[in-house]
Amino acid sequence: MLRRFTLLICLVACVAPVAAHGQSSPFAPLPQAAPQQATPTVTATTSSSDAGGGLASWQQVLIFAGGGILLIGIAWAIVSDARSHAPVEELTDTQEAARTRREEDIKRRKAKNRAAAKRSRAARKRNR
Known about the structure:
Blueprint: H1 2-15, H2 57-85, H3 93-126
């Protein structure tokens, strides 16, 4: 139903001609400019001697300090909430032992691969 309605609106928009009266003939003469009216000058007088009217510097400092405190508070709330909802793994002794074995195995493989690479470099140097 929505597709039909959208299609109907698009067809009506395409079929209905849009009249551009300003562009009816590009060779027509330009219209006459409106005469300028003289605008009276208005002078404003102020009765107060205070020229500032803005915030005092201590008020600006308070506003910026309040904004900084607000940003720090929002950041603290986000970080504390993220830490409280983060998954925490409690490892058992068997899981800790398995992790230790896995790390030792990785170190042993790295050392073995480094030694093989060193032997390979030495062989390439000898066979130059």
